[in-house]
Amino acid sequence: MAIVATNLKRGQAVKYNGETGLVTNIEHRTPGKGNALIMATIRSFQTGKTKDIRFASSDKVDIVPTERAKVEFSYSDPSGFHFMDTTSYETITMDDELIADVKDLLVEGLPVEILYCDGIAVTIELPSSIEMEVTESSEGVKGDTANNPTKAATLETGKVVQVPLFIKQGDRIKIDSETGRYTGKA
């Protein structure tokens, strides 16, 4: 199925330049002269790399039919990352390559969506905010409050993030799944 590039939406799977990928960001640009452009950031299912693709507003884009399944992260082991389908209780295993960029954000029981393309799991989508526990954090220096200081904190998955000085070991914090940065206390 082909649609006009102006109708392209974030989260759709498309075919472009012989590859299939997921639209992760979209911008409509109108230069000073000439026709409007659509700038789409697309993550390839084959390579996992993102590319910025420019479409003219009248270009046709091939949409790939996909299915989504709501699952919960269970655990990981050398064979892969294991998710449980919350309706059928089946276990779905995904390879490390498909999860590589988000594996340090996966905590047990985290609800995620798996995107299937032609019956094959191609990627997962995390919730926008994830709660995690701080397992290790150094003490903040008293009186060091100039310029909004931060310190390193290690989370339950081993991920290290910069947090404000008042965060201590055992605190639960929120992490933005897009940027991997601290957003607030849970």
> How many strands in all?
16
Largest sheet: 6 strands, antiparallel
> In CATH terms, what is the architecture of the largest domain?
Roll
Number of helices, counting only DSSP H or I runs of 4 residues or more? 1
Please state the average pLDDT score.
87
Strand content: over 45%
Percent of residues in helices: under 10%
Q: In whole angstroms, how far apart are the ends?
A: 43 Å
- Overall CATH class of the largest domain: Mainly Beta
How are strands sequenced across the largest beta sheet?
A: 1-6-2-3-4-5
Cα Rg: 20 Å
Summed up, the domain count is 3
* Poorly predicted regions: none
CATH topology of the largest domain: SH3 type barrels
Overall shape: it is flat
Q: List the secondary-structure elements in sequence, H or E.
A: EEEEEEEEEHEEEEEEE
Commentary on this structure:
The chain is flat. 2% of the residues lie in helices and 54% in strands. It is built from one helix and 16 strands. It is mainly β and 186 residues long. The protein folds into three domains: 2-63, SH3 type barrels; 66-125, OB fold (Dihydrolipoamide Acetyltransferase, E2P), CATH 2.40.50.140; 129-185, Beta Barrel (OB fold (Dihydrolipoamide Acetyltransferase, E2P)), CATH 2.40.50.140.
